[in-house]
Amino acid sequence: MPFSGEKAKSFLTSKTVWGVLIMGVAIFSDTLGMKIEGATDDIIGLIGAVFAIYGRVKASRPLAVF
Q1: 17-25 contacts, C-beta under 8 A, 24 or more apart
Q2: What are the start-end ranges of the H helices in the chain?
Q3: Nearest alpha carbon to residue 16 among 59, 45, 46, 47
Q4: What is the three-class DSSP state of 44?
Q5: Which among 41, 43, 48, 44 has a CA at the least distance from the CA of 20?
Q6: Alpha-carbon distance 27 to 61, whole Å?
Q7: What's the pLDDT tens digit per position in 15-64?
Q8: Vertex 15, ends 19 and 63: CA angle to 5°?
């Protein structure tokens, strides 16, 4: 187990969580009432995906929900 014995960190400090939230904004921008034009929506989604993957690869501790 790669995380055994290590103190968990808050989920709010997780790059993976923030990347997924950024992707969520791109995916649900119309539902959230934001008008994002053209390829900007795709670029935001791509940035979120890259950030989430980077966060997952660099993860060194498990997440604590609270």
Answers
A1: 17/55, 17/63, 18/51, 18/52, 18/55, 19/48, 19/49, 19/50, 19/51, 19/52, 19/53, 19/54, 19/55, 20/48, 20/52, 21/48, 22/47, 22/48, 22/51, 22/52, 23/48, 23/49, 23/52, 24/48
A2: 15-27, 40-58
A3: 59
A4: helix
A5: 48
A6: 28
A7: 999 999 999 999 998 888 888 888 999 999 999 999 999 999 998 888 88
A8: 120
Residue with tokens 């290590």: 6
User: Which pair of tokens denotes residue 60?
Assistant: 């060194």
**58: its two tokens:** 């660099």
Indicate the pTM of the whole model: 0.77
Residue with tokens 């959230």: 32
